[in-house]
Amino acid sequence: MITLKLIKPKRISDQVFEQLKELIFKGQLKPGDQLMTERELAQSMGVSRPTVREALNKLVAMGLLEHRQGQGTFVNSPADDADKNPLAAVINGHDVSLQDLLEVRLGLECNAVALAARRATEEDLQELIKSLAQMIEEIKSGKEGLGSNADLSFHMAIAYATRNLVQIHIMRSFYDLLFFGIKENLQHLYSDPSNLDRVIEQHESIVEAIRKRDPEAATAAMRKHITFVIDFFRERERE
């Protein structure tokens, strides 16, 4: 005889925890970002401060957040802690090139986008479209970062859409090294208007392939995008 368990309503603190964790995994809350105060979070989410505190402490225990005495609560940067981040430990003290990082990114993101094409929800798709629109807006307005912040959110949203916790955690752990580590270099890529048009077109192709639930097309579109970036920097090194 099958034994069924009673359905229990999810605790409010767990709901707060899940919402904040999702924002971190999607890249909407980035390494180094400061969270609102407990009071502000409680007011924004319509819950009590003890409920928020419980959720924050759980995220701190997971290593996703850190409390800084007298400063507040910040999103933790995995790349800064070599003891907890194997990749950071390997790279520290070694001559790792930009191309090395991009080659790793190529493998991770091609796998991620294929899974996302199979599993993305409508909400995931809307998140990708929103990030792409923000990236275009940032680039055209000439804001600092030239679209790179929205670009980060775009790629982390793809990782989240895989619904694979291992993939999400790997991308999260490598976040700084794969993206923030090349942020300065991306300014050279974005300084050429023709490159901007290509990058935007490549991102649009990725979104369209995911929307059509076509893993092969999504993989090809992501490979084209990352390879384009790799080739650009390879040519720069030869100059």
Can you describe what's shown?
The protein folds into two domains: 12-76, Winged helix-like DNA-binding domain superfamily/Winged helix DNA-binding domain (Arc Repressor Mutant, subunit A); 86-238, Four Helix Bundle (Hemerythrin (Met), subunit A) (Up-down Bundle). The chain is 67% helix and 3% strand. The protein contains twelve helices and two strands. The longest helix is centred in the last third of the chain and has 24 residues, at 215-238. The radius of gyration is 19 Å and the shape is globular. The N and C termini lie far apart (73 Å).
Q: What is the fold's blueprint, element by element?
A:
Layout: H1 12-25, H2 38-45, H3 49-61, E1 65-68, E2 72-75, H4 86-91, H5 98-119, H6 122-141, H7 148-161, H8 165-173, H9 175-178, H10 183-190, H11 193-211, H12 215-238
Antiparallel strand pairs: 1-2
